Amino acid sequence: MSVSVRLRNSPINSPKSSPCTSPRFLHKHPRSPAARRSIMPVVVIHGGAAVVSPDKVQLKLEGVKRAANIGYEVLQSSNGTALDAVEAAVKVMEDDPVFNAGFGASLTLTEKIELDALIMEGTRMKAGAVAGVSKVANPVTLSRHIMEKSEHVLMIGDGAHKFADEVGMPATKPEALVTEYACERLNYFKSFMTAVNSGMGKSSDHDTVGAVAVDSAGHVACATSTGGITAKQEGRVGDSPCVGSGGFADDFIGAVSTTGHGEAIMRVCLARHITGLMQQGMKAQEAAVAGLEYMKNRVQGYGGVVVVSNKGDIGVHFTTECMAWAYRKGSVVHYGIQPDDDLTEDGSSDSSPL
Ligand code: ASP
């Protein structure tokens, strides 16, 4: 005997439903005029989840504010998209030696530069990423070339260098990206480390850069760039270039960029996890907090995130001691570095490059 069970309110079982009228397909696409009307473009920046020494606090804050202002101006320009904004903002921080990305990146245990980066756009969910590169000053831009000019998502090492050459990016000597501060940090770690892994899980040694943005058309994007964790093993790749871990962007939900202990972030797919929570109805801030709590409880990992929903709702949270962050809304820049900071200043005059 067969028993047919009809689920109450189930669109699949309702005699009037058809696949095309299922509520699942009735979400307004973010590009539709109705969805677009109320979106105020915004770019949200992080400068890495870490412990920041007092002499670096001001420099980090200046750096994230500058990146937020530059990203915002890109969003305000006539053709500026969320994708352009996150690339421009991350580039500013890659060029700024106070951050662990591009010039100023952390070094491997063997004193090498190995950079990782990711960029992703939410419309077609296209992504480009690099891992273990040392001859490009702006890995975020190389990632964008990979996204737009290759069939691939992630390229590594020498293959990525060759591709950079093919698309006309100038080659940089790896030594040109090394700063005195990166060497000091490596020596400090070497001086007390008994094993590289003893330093990897600590909440003190992560300071990647990242940005998320939504533009007035409701498109979202994310970008993340890093030198990885100081004294990492040669060949180690962290979360930053991995879609769903170091970042994620989907116009139907929003965008996330992460920082923190890469091994933990990869194991919980932090960026995708947070957008999943948003998909279930959480606001960006709630999802940021819940995602990081999950990572802490589930795999004992610490970090930080910036989040934006496709409606411009913002989330900023970290479980490390500090994370420099900033965003600009209208002429006001919001920023902070300690938990619960929300400082503000007029941003209309500060967008000069370094
Ligand atoms: N997540 C990066 C990594 O593990 C480090 C960081 O965020 O600073 O490579």
TrEMBL record:
Where composition is biased (Polar residues), the residues are 10-21
Q: Name one Pfam family in it.
A: Asparaginase_2
Q: What's the superkingdom here?
A: Eukaryota
Q: Where is this region: Disordered?
A: 1-33
Q: Which reaction does it catalyse?
A: Cleavage of a beta-linked Asp residue from the N-terminus of a polypeptide; L-asparagine + H2O = L-aspartate + NH4(+)
Entries under PANTHER family matching the protein: ASPARAGINASE (EUROFUNG) (PTHR10188:SF43), L-ASPARAGINASE (PTHR10188)
What protein family does this chain belong to? Belongs to the Ntn-hydrolase family.
Protein name, per record: Isoaspartyl peptidase/L-asparaginase-like isoform X1
